[in-house]
Amino acid sequence: MKAPNRSLQTRQRQRPAPPRRVLLVDDSRAQRQVFAIQLRRAGYEVSEAGSGFEALEICKAQEPDFVISDWVMPQLSGPELCQRFRALDRNKYGYFILLTSNSDSADISAGLAAGADDFLIKPVSGPELLARLSAGERMLRIEEELRSSNDMLRATLERLHEAQEAMERDLCEARKLQQGLVRERSGRFGHHELSLLLRPAGHIGGDLVGFFPIGADRVGIYALDVSGHGVTAALLTAQLSVHLSGSADQNVALRAAQMGHDAVNPAALAQFFNNMMLEEMTTDTYFTMIYADLNHVTGALSMVQAGHPHPVLQRADGRIERIGNGGMPVGVIEKPIFDEISLTLNPGDRLLITSDGLIEATNPAGRLLGEEGLDAIMRTNAFLTGHAFLESMAWSVSEYCRGERLDDISAVLIEHRAAAETVPIRHR
Q: Which residue ranges does the record assign to the Response regulatory domain (predicted)?
């Protein structure tokens, strides 16, 4: 800022406030003249009115800061004028003083009920009048400061509201982009069907699920849950999605396959991400994950569990088993222990992988859904498959929480569909 501008602002700040305007209302012109001389000498701007109705017109045109009115006047008394004065649509508060010859408490109560701020008992001395106006000045200054603060607060709230609307629009777009990270919601590989579910608790979240083909007979399947919520978790999720995308030159698991080697095994992939988090990320964020390598010809599945909830295996006969020992999250310590799992999906079996937002869903009484609740949901919906099963599961969780989910929900359902049997036709 240039010096001349600073000098101008200083002069503006030091400029004295305009004088207060006082309206004198009395049917006695002589009485008004006495008060007017004293007030003008004290620096006030003075207007005069000989009746209550004349005073109201002046109040509408000038909005005086003070009204000093005699109690007894023809046509419109002082208290009646005060009532109408209070009913006017004003931009600021007006201080009303009633002059009366009667100090009876009942009259004072009536004046207060009419809206008067102060009373002066006739005869009124000049020093007393100026002292009462000085007291009224303090009240007007407080009112003006409050009004100014309210105006600033209102303007700030409007700016916050505009910023919130802009953020809301951005988050809605971010939600669309994040949902787009899950390129395919389902896939069929041989007799195996994959179904995905992703439901953020807010606009955006830290969960990610997906799959990609590794070769002619294998498919990679992943489920991630980044710690925390909101933008930070969503940004890390987006970066991890790039490393697990279907593009062979970006997908960490497929880089070795480009050089003629086998794809990276699940445990090595988890270790790669752990090193990346510790060496490249300047954040306290970590994530849990399950990455599985499924041979969809044989049903053999090798999997790494890194702090993610236990996958649930439901056999064809309805039995439910929890798989894995847990393992450590990714990005916490330099040499974590991940759990490596191998199993075979037989015809009719299915494996459900979920984030902790499901088993940690809480009802209004504060009780967790837990593993038992998830088992009950799986048994209840055993006759459903694919997305129908996942949607029914999500609905059950929402009903349990009464719609108040605090965490994201994501799931991967891997189903080994039994091959259709050939029924021979007998000829008679």
A: 21-137
The pLDDT of residue 41 is above 90:
yes
- Chain centroid to CA 15: how far? 44
How would you classify the pairing of strands 45-49 and 21-25? parallel
Architecture, CATH, for domain 180-416: 4-Layer Sandwich (3.60)
Q: Could you report the per-residue pLDDT of 330-362, keeping only the tens digit for each?
A: 999 999 999 999 999 999 999 999 998 888 888
Q: Contact, 172 vs 203, CB < 8 A?
A: yes
Domain with CATH 3.60.40.10 in the chain: 180-416
d(CA 157, CA 276): 42
Q: How far apart are CA 266 and CA 262, in angstroms?
A: 12
pLDDT at 18: 84
Residue 270: closest CA among 327, 203, 313: 327
pLDDT over 70 percentage in the chain: 85
Strands 192-199 and 186-189: antiparallel
Look up the pTM and report it.
0.62
The architecture CATH gives domain 3-149: 3-Layer(aba) Sandwich (3.40)
Q: Strand 409-416: give its sheet, edge to edge.
A: 186-189, 192-199, 409-416, 350-354, 312-314, 320-322
Q: What are the start-end ranges of the H helices in 20-97?
A: 29-41, 52-62, 78-87
pLDDT tens sequence across 43-76: 999 999 999 999 999 999 999 999 999 999 988 9
73, 52 in Cβ contact below 8 A?
A: yes
